[in-house]
């Protein structure tokens, strides 16, 4: 089942539902990227969005290791290991695309030249705080990479993640308990259950999967939700 861009939150009794696959989440998010946008796709799940961009829109993809104008993933027989994204995955380059020093790439990120950044998330707070780089486990030394620069530099930040962790804990919470990537930076959250906007009035449910109800979604969320 897929999300309908025109669906509305319901408060009827719970029904059976099937969470979206990661590919379906990527397709849903891609629908919301406007024509003419410059977009960074973060490492992990967000890179799936590249394969689902609408054909009738010109969307320029950026990678922080120094690429502008990435195309969809290459076919197996067309992989060029000298052309990779920040996650070390092979990519393609569209006509007019370019690659350059990563210092120039970070200048684009920090200078507010990206319209949208799509990143994964470990936790998102009700006020838009983002934690997506460290679980803060003793003895670990994780690297944040360019996430902090993207979180504060992009004009809009979309988070793509499962609604709950593997053990069932909510990933949308009142307050993040993991180290923050950015404070108040998230604009919209895409999960396998819903699309949720972060607004000054709180978390507003924009879409839900077929069969999901607002009360069921609320039971799986660690912060208050509001119907649009």
From TrEMBL:
SUPFAM superfamilies in alphabetical order: NagB/RpiA/CoA transferase-like (SSF100950)
EC number(s) from the headed UniProt entry: 2.8.3.6
GO molecular function, one term: 3-oxoadipate CoA-transferase activity
Short name of one Pfam family: CoA_trans
Enzyme class (EC, first level): transferase
Domain of life: Bacteria
Keywords: Transferase
Protein family according to the UniProt entry: Belongs to the 3-oxoacid CoA-transferase subunit B family.
Designated name of the protein: 3-oxoadipate CoA-transferase subunit B
């Amino acid at each position: 089942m897929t999300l309908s861009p025109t669906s509305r939150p319901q408060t009827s009794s719970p029904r059976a539902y099937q969470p979206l696959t990661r590919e379906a989440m990527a397709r849903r998010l891609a629908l919301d990227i406007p024509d003419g946008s410059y977009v960074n796709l973060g490492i992990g799940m967000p890179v799936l969005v590249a394969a689902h961009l609408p054909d009738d829109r010109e969307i320029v993809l950026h990678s922080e290791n120094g690429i502008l104008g990435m195309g969809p993933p290459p076919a197996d027989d067309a992989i060029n290991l000298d052309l990779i994204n920040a996650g070390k995955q092979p990519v393609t380059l569209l006509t007019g695309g370019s690659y350059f020093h990563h210092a120039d790439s970070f200048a684009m990120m920090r200078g507010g030249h990206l319209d949208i950044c799509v990143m994964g998330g470990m936790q998102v707070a009700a006020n838009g705080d983002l934690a997506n780089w460290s679980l803060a486990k003793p003895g670990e030394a994780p690297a944040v990479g360019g996430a902090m620069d993207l979180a504060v530099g992009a004009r809009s930040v979309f988070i793509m993640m499962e609604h709950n962790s593997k053990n069932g804990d909510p990933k949308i919470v009142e307050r993040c308990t993991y180290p923050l990537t950015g404070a108040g930076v998230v604009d919209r959250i895409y999960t396998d259950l819903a699309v949720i906007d972060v607004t000054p009035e709180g978390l507003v449910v924009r879409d839900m999967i077929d069969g999901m109800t607002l009360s069921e979604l609320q039971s799986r969320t660690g912060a208050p939700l509001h119907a649009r």
